[in-house]
Each structure stands twice: as structure tokens, then as C-alpha cells.
């Protein structure tokens, strides 16, 4: 049992310090107690004599920036591991940002990760390790797990996207086969059963995220091209559950609330991911919390792989209104197929190299979240991505990594 004394000089930042230490305790699997006095306790405060010296009260000032080492300094001009961890963990850099991209999202190019070129560094874990050294406990060393997921945006788009690609390459036979598959009610992107079969061969499990609203919103944005409540989709939805896999809601870009979309979903889902990763903080966290959903898996950059909040593990975000953790667990997103295809425009070889380099650097202390859309499992427009996903499954199997479910994440990482 480790005792902490939160000094009164922390003022209103006491709740932030308590929250961060609770996340640290879950990270290190330590038991902690907050004491009313400093006797036999680790003092946390803003004074130079505090064992954990922190300037947590200053980090909400938008003019304060992480230094070139990716850290804040405390009042004694030493590294402030507690404030740095809190700031990065909760994506505080996004709270004041008004310069959004064309989808009204936080821009990767506005991030400290882009400025410091440290997107692939688990900086919060570094801060937690330094705190562990200060209080004298062993550093966390736990084999990473994988969180595999699939956003089901389109099931009927193959005839246009893959079909056009096949014709361009002179593959009229492939195009005719796509037409035939549509005629028999098996369009090429309606491949959820094939994805599950492939993953089961490697002992892997995954989550499928479904959109309940259909149709185009504007020239740039579109919801699903399928009717979620149709018999065909419902049959697949139920098949996912029957096979022991999981379903979640893929919050649409319509102006409907979570409550309205959950009604269409049919029951309160355990998990959500925002369509297009389109959300803004802290509003999105409040909306998820009020919905009753217990897990969100949206916190990733579309433009690059790696850590949007510089942390590799699921966590409960901090609620600035209540001073307590939100009730749901956020699972940071690290790898997405579309990042390489659309944003970076990488070759399959280069995408393979970057993905597996990230895996190797994060063999410990991560729940590595991988998103592979169902339309990337065909070999026409998205040629090579099916093979690349198989390589990911092989890597997981051969290295004896485990895939983790939504319920396991909530049980293992929640501090709420």
C-alpha cells in the first residue's frame, strides 16, 4: 500500500492529482491510499519540498506548451511528470483549439505530437515510470494485447469502387462476378462472416461497429449505404454475437443524439466509435458519458498512426466539471488502414514496414488498437490490404499476443 498526501497548496488541482495517481495505480497495479497528513506518505504538492512536485494548476493555460522533451517543468524547473501525464492523457491540447479541418476535427498538424515528432512514443507511460521510480516501486512490464475492430461504413460500394478499379485494369471477369454476387444477395463488401472466419483461424476476436443512419449528408460526408434494421444486416449482426464476437455503435454524422441512435440500435451498446473519427473534446466525452455507453474507441489521428493522447492503454478521461473520472473507458486508436491509403498514400510495403515497426516498439504496456474496414478485405481498389491484415493476424498468433474484448477492457482498466 502506497500512501499519498495531497498538500493544500494544490488548491483546486487536488482532484486532478488524485485522478492521475489513480490512473497510475491502475497502470502499475498498485494499491494506494490518500492520507489526511504527510506522516509516512508521499507528499504531492507545488512546494519544492514535495516528493512529487507539480504545477498542475497551470496546465489549463492555453499559452503553456510542452517543451522539446515533451514535458512540463514544475515550479522548481524540474520535469513535472504528474502534470505532463494528466495533460497528455486527457488530450487537453484539443480543448481550446478552434482551427478545425474540413470535417470539423482537431488537426493532427496542430498537435504537439506533430511539432515534436513523437506520435509513436508512449510518453504517458514514460511519466508513469518516472513516478514509479520516485516512489520506489518496480516499473510496469506487461505484454501488450491487441484490440481488433471493423467499422462497417459500406456494404454495397464494391460494385462502384472495386468494379471501376477492375474495369480500369481490364478485369471484366471480376466486374461480372461482382454483378453476380449482388444478384444473389452477396455483395463483395458484405463479408463480415469471412472476416470472423479468418480471425478465428488465428485465435483472434474483434468488434464490429455499425451505423444506424443511412445516406449522404453533404458532398464530403456520408453515413451508411445500408439500412441497419434490414433483415440482411440484422442476420449478420446476430451472427457476430452468436460467434462470440462483439457489436458496437458507429455514431453517425447526423444531428441525432446518442439516445436517438441507441433507440434505432435496439439496445444500449457497450461500445461506440465516432464515424470519420468526427468528434470534439470535451463535448464528445460528456455526450458519451450521458448516453450510458461504457467504452469508446475513437481517440486516434486519421492522418497518422500512433498515440493521439500519448498513452497506450485504455483509461477513464477526466471530467473537468465534476473533478471525477468519466464513467466510460476510452480505448486509444493506434492503427487504421485508411491512414495509409488515403492520408499518407503509402505503398503496401511501406505501410507494412511502419505498422510492424510500431508493433515491435510497443510489445509491452499497450492495448494496440487496430481498425480495418470491411471494404479493405478485397483486392481491387484496396489491393494488398487483405494480405497485410493477414500478416497482422499472423504476427499476433506467432508472438502469442492475445486479443482483448470490450468487457475485458472495462473490467481491467476502469477506475470509475
Keywords:
four-stranded parallel beta sheet, TIM Barrel, 2 domains, 416 residues, alpha/beta, nine-stranded parallel beta sheet, globular, 17 strands
Quick structural summary:
The chain has 416 residues and is α/β, with parallel strands linked by helices. 35% of the residues lie in helices and 14% in strands. It folds into two domains: 134 residues, no CATH class; 235 residues, Alpha-Beta Barrel (TIM Barrel).
Describe the structure.
- The chain is an alpha/beta fold and 416 residues long.
- It has two domains: 2-135, no CATH class; 145-155 and 190-413, TIM Barrel.
- Helix content is 35%, strand content 14%.
- The chain contains 14 helices and 17 strands.
- The protein has helices spanning 14-28, 81-89, 112-116, 123-135, 158-168, 172-183, 192-200, 231-242, 258-265, 283-291, 337-344, 348-361, 385-398, 406-413; strands at residues 2-6, 32-35, 42-45, 52-53, 72-73, 79-80, 145-152, 206-210, 246-251, 271-274, 295-296, 318-319, 324-325, 329-330, 335-336, 367-371, 402-403.
- Strands 7, 8, 9, 10, 11, 14, 15, 16 and 17 form a nine-stranded parallel beta sheet that branches.
- Strand 9 (246-251), helix 9 and strand 10 form a beta-alpha-beta unit.
- Helix 1 (14-28) crosses helix 2 (81-89) and helix 2 (81-89) packs antiparallel against helix 4.
- The longest helix has 15 residues, at 14-28.
- The chain is globular.
- The model has no long low-confidence stretch (mean pLDDT 91).
